[in-house]
Amino acid sequence: MPLILAIESSCDETSASVCRDGEILSNSIATQAIHHKYGGVVPELASRAHMQQIIPVVTDALKRAEVSIAEIDAFAFTQSPGLIGALLVGAQFTKSLALATGKPLIAVHHMQAHVLANLIDNPKPSFPFLCLTVSGGHTQIVCCHSPYQLEILGKTIDDAVGEAFDKTAKMLGLPYPGGPLIDKYASKGNPNAYHFPEPKIAGLDFSFSGIKTAILYFLNNAGKSTLYKENFLADTTERKIFIAQNLNDICASVQNRLVSILLKKLEKATEQTGINEVCIAGGVSANSELRSRFKLLGESKGWNTYIPAFQYCTDNAAMIAIAAYYKYLNKDFSSLSVVPSARSEW
Ligand code: KG4
Ligand code: ZN
């Protein structure tokens, strides 16, 4: 019955979770509001905020789980990928706990943890399952053969889909992070009001940079074209009026295209692999249209579909804890000299 304390600090969420034998007892998250006014995550400020928050967040997670540090059997942290200064705070803190208590240290890959978040609640997918992992930095289709064997079948060759949401929101003058706001305005708009091009990318890979450029041209042309025009309106009053008058329809049309791109590739992956246990994960899986269309598509195709509970979709330590639980069962422990890494495919 291992009791694990896990810490997540890869970006702008400081989170701690306690898990007993694969069951999540607590999942405390402190979101860093400081970045909102800068229109994106400022790495230096993220590291400082993690330093401030880490002890209160860990204390809260232990309290909610009604356990003490002395009872913990292993300490886990996010090793990669993420902002290096942010990762260092969580890594160093967790190592110190392992050193002080003499208990094992477990290093977890953030993107694997997003996939394994599907193993937190019941019903759980059976192996092998496919997972569309969609976050601010990644867009992947993963085949999860077991908790220890995850294979990337496709990934973005440029921007992540979360970036496409956030950059579109920025072009529309919405604050960071824009993904949830696009979701909100889209719910009141017409998804077929405007047409954005579909990227022509072979296989199971994705591309979102072309659609981002098309949206920029579309806004600069006040909705008249998605192509570059000599008589660009860039930042004129007409552009602003167009956005103000059509915000809901623009958000709904962009979201419609982004979700279609994701689901089309996921469908292709199920056809290629013959696997019909299908999951989504990562921050963008909090998107209401993606969630509902994924479920509908699954029903029409006869898939068994799984989506983590909302709090386990965006960055959280519970997913680090569940990944660490499986590593613990496999005695996959790290040395105290392990270092975090900003980038790494597993
Ligand atoms: O997984 P995550 O919390 O952090 C990373 O590992 O990147 O994902 C963050 C991303 C951001 O791009 C954010 O805008 C997006 O998830 N996101 C959403 C929604 N909620 C979060 N995108 C669209 N609709 C949402 N409801
Ligand atoms: Zn994430």
- According to CATH, the fold-level topology of the largest domain is Nucleotidyltransferase, domain 5
Give the CATH superfamily of the largest domain: ATPase, nucleotide binding domain
What's the number of structural domains? 2
Task: Quote the distance from N terminus to C terminus.
Answer: 27 Å
Task: Report the count of strand segments.
Answer: 10
Known CATH architecture of the largest domain:
2-Layer Sandwich
Query: Which blocks of ≥5 consecutive residues have pLDDT under 50?
Result: none
How would you summarize the topology of this molecule?
Elements: E1 3-8, E2 13-20, E3 23-31, H1 43-65, E4 74-80, H2 84-101, E5 105-109, H3 110-116, E6 129-134, E7 139-146, E8 149-155, H4 161-171, H5 179-186, H6 209-220, H7 237-273, E9 277-281, H8 288-301, E10 304-306, H9 317-329
Parallel strand pairs: 1-4, 4-5, 6-9, 9-10
Antiparallel strand pairs: 1-2, 2-3, 6-7, 7-8
The structure holds 5'-O-[(R)-(carboxyoxy)(hydroxy)phosphoryl]adenosine (KG4) and zinc ion.
5'-O-[(R)-(carboxyoxy)(hydroxy)phosphoryl]adenosine binds at residues 11, 135-137, 162, 165-166, 177-180, 183, 282-284, 286-287, 314-315.
Keywords summarizing the entry:
Nucleotidyltransferase, domain 5, 18% strand, single chain, alpha/beta, five-stranded mixed beta sheet, 9 helices, 346 residues, binds 5'-O-[(R)-(carboxyoxy)(hydroxy)phosphoryl]adenosine, binds zinc ion, 10 strands
